[in-house]
Specification:
Layout (H helix, E strand, L loop, with lengths): L7 H8 L5 E5 L5 H12 L8 E5 L2 H15 L8 E4 H12 L10 E3 L1 H13 L10 H13 L14 H19 L2 E3 H14 L1 H10 L2 E4 L7 H10 L6 E5 L14 H4 L1 H4 L4 E5 L7 H11 L21 E5 L2 H18 L7 E5 L5 H10 L4 E3 L9 H14 L4 H8 L8 H14 L3 H6 L9 H23 L3 H11 L2 H8 L3 H25 L4 H9 L11 H6 L3 E5 H4 L4 E6 L10 H5 L4 H12 L2 E10 L1 E4 L2 E4 L4 H5 L6 E3 L8 H19 L1
Parallel strand pairs: 1-7, 1-8, 2-3, 2-6, 4-5, 6-7, 9-14, 9-17, 10-12, 10-13, 11-12, 13-14
Antiparallel strand pairs: 15-16
The protein binds a DNA duplex through helix 3, helix 4, helix 8, helix 26 and helix 27.
Length: 675
DNA sequence: ACTCATGATATTTTT
DNA sequence: TATCATGAGT
């Protein structure tokens, strides 16, 4: 096998197939290439179904699989598992979950489904000192699950009212989920672990099968995932993890950088390989990034280098205010686009919080520059989308009471809140699931004739479509007919105050149908269940309209948060809002004090840049309507001045030389067009 | 059941 | 400043 296209450490990482291996892969060091080549190399010795590669996003998984298929062909890669942790978990659960008392058609609850459940539970509780704050409770439950703390084992701190409330709600929440035959995101991993722990034959099956395990972005794993890996690799012990401790930016979500720092403790015979040669950024950019990250303690320690040129210097500029900052950035985009022959899509504006995008959007729109915004409110979080999906979810799992209640009277069909209350009461009294109770509205006393009729009609509708969908020969058509019959579109027009908004919502509704349609086309799958599973695992990168992937293809300036920029690269990056209180963020300074993670975030942003990197801050900024003075971020000061060109508020207009260059490029462009 | 006004609140968000 | 959730009023 030809490995000459790899550098020495890369080659080592590929060839070291046995035992525990930690590949410390710096930003832009070609780690995806290493992983895919490693898989290809393994495939020469073992069959595909003994190899599993885990990633964090579906997109990464898809890309990885594509590349492997390209290298070794479809036939040899058949049976290879390349998936996210969660997909692997669901796969195991669909097979084995009945052992834990769930049914195989369990639903996966989204954040909003969860929130609805918790809200109802919290309302029933009144703990002193805790306002009924479902968000916070849900967050605490999730944190607990991420640490593998079960409902019974949860120990609230005596002085924390929220934790006490959580202690009350957590077990109830878990019971409710089970009653709905539903699992939440954290459960997917948690329950998988439970299966492996409690049923040795299940563990035996998988640990025997998985002879070689590889993990990407290992710095982002949490305790549960680390444990899962330990279990799965406990027979063959061939576990290769790839990651970069300097890019660990999801600590707040339960990711434990300790996993990558202490990996050797669990695997004493560990081989460590460092990939430090960078193939992405210019020398200046790497020097500045290295200079920043050395301020962190507790790291494996890496120094990125490049064989390429030093390139353009990294520029820092302190602007007057936010407005000024946006003008400078947009002005620079204009000039660089001509000077360096860049397209719009080669520029990225990165910020700490999504709220910072607005001012740049305004400026870009004013200058007629196309842009795409990544992040913010997600497609599947929109109300109209959730409502539409709720119908489908209930058809797939009639025990899904959260969604059943959501659609019971939407669109309005004459089952008001009081009626709903009575139905719920009846369900509790009779000890039957809601769906059962609804089958016989006449058994519920106190329900008016009209309401009973409405319920009968609703149930009839649901069963009719359930039957159609189960036949499964026209998924798209069935969904379309359903939405038409319940008049969802009309409802959207009726609700909205302005027609603009309504049209946008209807469009989103159509996108749901498109999503079904493109899913059927792509996967050749036609069951409702499999579609819902895909959607629930938040495969937002499914190349449908509005996805991150699709957006990045257009020729438009990209705006996004630092978090969502990880894994991407751009010829030219603007890192904006480099101020104390924003990056590092105020909340961090006040609460966890984990400045190191903020520094890593800044580092991630800087290392996205290939040729041009500009850091910006503003001396004053409008915040919540008030103009506040701001200090430049400590991170700016941590980069030695000789690695950074400090550019002070000189006029935004182009210097004459650039003007000239611009004109000459313009003319040569015209010449090209004329042939 | 729907509208309107008030006030609290304002990180990041791979699955 | 913008948004959203909540509660009073129609």
């Amino acid at each position: 096998m030809d490995l000459s296209f790899l550098n020495e450490p890369q080659r080592q990482a590929v060839l070291q197939t046995e035992g525990a291996v930690l590949v410390l892969a710096g930003a832009g060091s070609g780690k995806t290439r290493v992983i895919t080549t490693r898989i290809a190399y393994l495939l020469r010795q073992v069959s595909a179904d003994h190899i599993v590669a885990l990633t964090f996003t579906n997109k990464a998984a898809r890309e990885m699989l594509d590349r492997v298929v390209k290298q070794v062909g479809r036939k040899k890669s058949k049976g290879l598992i390349v998936s996210t942790f969660h997909s692997l978990g669901v796969r195991i659960l669909r097979q084995e979950i009945e052992r834990l008392g769930y049914k195989r058609n369990f639903s996966i609850y989204s954040a909003s489904d969860q929130l609805r459940l918790v809200r109802d539970l919290v309302q029933g509780q009144l703990v002193e000192g805790a306002a009924a704050d479902a968000d916070r409770v849900l967050w605490l439950i999730s944190q607990a699950k991420n640490r593998l703390i079960s409902a019974d084992a949860y120990q609230p701190a005596a002085n924390d009212a929220y934790q006490q409330l959580t202690a009350q709600v957590y077990p109830q929440y878990q019971r409710q989920l089970k009653a709905c035959n539903a699992v939440d995101f954290d459960d997917i991993l948690q329950l998988t672990i439970r299966l492996l722990h409690e049923f040795p034959e299940v563990l035996e099956h998988y640990r025997l099968r998985f002879r070689y395990i590889m993990v990407d972005e290992y710095q982002d794993t949490n305790v549960v995932q680390a444990q899962l890996l330990k279990l799965l690799s406990s027979f063959h012990h061939n576990l290769c993890v790839v990651g970069d401790d300097d890019q660990s930016i999801y600590g707040w979500r339960g990711a434990d950088p300790g996993n990558i720092l202490d990996f050797g403790k669990d695997f004493p015979s560990l081989k460590v390989i460092k990939l430090e040669q960078n193939y992405r950024s210019s020398g200046h950019i790497l020097s500045a990034a290295n200079a920043l990250i050395v301020h962190n303690k507790d790291r494996h320690g890496k120094r990125l280098w490049t064989a390429d040129e030093q390139g353009a210097p990294v520029v820092y500029r302190c602007c007057d205010d936010g407005e000024d900052e946006s003008t400078v950035v947009v002005g620079r985009i204009h000039s660089l686009r001509f000077k360096s022959q860049l397209q719009y899509r080669d520029f990225a504006i990165l910020y700490r919080t999504n709220g910072q995008s607005r001012i740049f959007e305004e400026q870009l729109r004013y200058e007629n520059i196309p842009y795409v915004l990544i992040g913010g409110q997600q497609f599947f979080d929109r109300k109209e989308v959730k409502d539409a999906l709720a119908y489908l979810k209930v058809m797939a799992n009639t025990q899904d009471e959260v969604n059943l209640l959501r659609i019971l009277n939407y669109p309005k069909r004459g089952i008001g809140e009081t009626s709903a209350e009575r139905i719920i009461q009846a369900s509790v009294d009779q000890g039957l699931p809601l769906w059962q109770v609804l089958q016989h509205p006449e058994h519920i006393t106190e329900l008016g004739d009209k309401t009973q009729e409405a319920i009968r009609e609703f149930v009839g509708l649901m069963r009719r479509y359930q039957r159609r969908l189960q036949q499964g020969n026209n998924l798209v058509g069935d969904v379309q007919d359903l939405f038409r019959e319940i008049k969802l579109e009309e409802e959207l027009y009726r609700q909205a105050d302005d027609p603009q908004k309504a049209r946008r919502r209807v469009e989103n509704l159509h996108e749901v149908i498109n999503a079904v349609s493109s899913y059927v086309e792509r996967e050749g799958q036609t069951t409702l269940e499999s579609f819902l599973e895909k959607v629930s695992l938040l495969d937002r990168d499914e190349p449908q309209r509005g996805s991150k992937e699709e957006k990045l293809k257009q020729d438009a300036v990209v705006l996004m948060s630092l978090h969502s920029s990880k894994g991407l690269e751009f010829p030219c990056v603007f890192l904006v809002g480099l101020e104390e209180g924003t990056l590092p963020h105020k909340k961090i300074l006040e609460e966890s004090g984990d400045v190191a993670e903020e520094r890593r975030l800044c580092y991630v942003g800087m290392t996205r840049a290939r040729q041009h990197l500009m850091l910006l801050s503003a001396a004053r900024r409008r915040k919540y309507g008030r103009l506040q003075p701001r200090d430049a971020s400590r991170f700016v000061h941590e980069i030695p001045p000789e690695l950074l060109v400090h550019e002070d508020g000189e006029p935004v207009a182009l210097p004459a030389a650039e003007e000239e260059q611009l004109a000459s490029n313009f003319f040569s462009g015209i010449k090209d067009m004329l042939g």
